[in-house]
Amino acid sequence: MRLVVVGNGMAGSRLVSEVRARDPHLPITVVGAETCQPYNRVLLSNVLAGSARPEQVRLLDPSWYAAHRVEAVFGSAVTCLDRDTRAVVTEDGRRVPYDVLVLATGSDAIVPPIPGVERAIPFRTLGDCERILESAGSSRRAVVIGGGLLGVEAARGLAGRGLPVTLLHLAGHLMERQLDVEAGEVLGETLAGLGVDIRTGVTAQAVQADGVLLADGDLVEGDLVVLACGVRPVTGLAADAGLEVRRGIVVDDEMRTDDPSIFAIGECAEHDGTVYGLVAPAWEQAGVAADVITGGKALYRGSRMVTRLKARSVELAAMGETQLTEEHAEVVRFTHRARGTYRKLVIRDGRLVGAIVLGESDAVGTLTQLFDRGGPLPGDRAGLLFPGLSATAHVADSPTLMPDAAKVCQCNNVTKGQIRACWEAGARDVAGIAAATRATTGCGTCRDAVEGIVGWLCEQEGVSA
After folding, report:
1. Which of 3, 61, 127, 434 is most buried as measured by Cβ atoms within 10 A of its Cβ?
2. Is 340 left (phi over 0), alpha (psi -120 to 50) or beta?
3. pLDDT tens across 39-78, in order?
């Protein structure tokens, strides 16, 4: 059996490594449109901010493919999927036959159809990031169009380099898909304090040489314009081949398309009406597909969405149904706008169905676990928002009290018990734990928790970390 994977981003590269871990002999070919090795797209904002170098966000070492007998074709996009002969054809004419095919084509940046948009740079790929940085070196002022997660990260990253930045957003508040109005406003105030000028409720009408022209006639000056207007699943290859496509490539619980020999995972896949745009669901889907491809049994039942933003001086976690009000749920809220703090719990039937935590807080780990498990909440709601007030909220924040089943790394589904087992097997630092479990290699926000567990284990056993 020959496996071909189209796409070598975060989903495709994870699928390849998961399959190889299960079957050391299955012939695998991966075809990627980008010329570089796979990298962690989630961490590109760190590259933009200067807190990480491009080589530090790579997912697989260049030597990995040869060492694991995986044929890798980089820099050659697939242009045709021939289902009749079971082969894919690349833009340079290469024909790659398959018995099983996995589509991991990801998403493309949305580029608004406005005059002069070719002057702007999308913020999506490592190549885009390098172009932005090159331009930033000679720019006096930047404008970012789009106030979702990527736009906020781009604006914060550029401001952190000392470049004056204006962030333009069509909606009335930032990150409106994840945040309620007040949280969006508090986030905007936090960014303003870091040097980002926020303009919400505005429409970009054209990109000019000296800035962005708004629909109301105002000109927002800037010689660097960055686009963060959202993404769109790459589905053309599947659609041209006659596979079922809606918003994404439609898949079942085994991640199969309506052609049983073709799977789809990641941002290009639509499961049960949902297209996920986060890394954790993509990696969960890769694990399910790898199990099925190698003869195992696994089903994907959907993912619980947790959005994390951890830029310099900006920390945010949002999960679930954050927009519900007191009319439809029990809502517990605390705001301290002068400190950039906003915390909100949304509770229904005694269970956490949504939460927002903006600003530094020890509560995130506990809330994420309660949301992920869907279990009943303790009666002390204030203790959930303020862990220092109650012992009930220390479950995720104290390695001593955290149960082994507690999930520490959401992106990779790594529990405290797995970290403990790796430590007992000889992994005495975060790098060793990451190599064995992949914890900390997704969004990176669990690193402090992993360090805490490792440190606690070393202290308990009287060994040096």
Report:
1. 3
2. left
3. 998 889 889 888 888 888 888 888 899 999 999 999 989 9
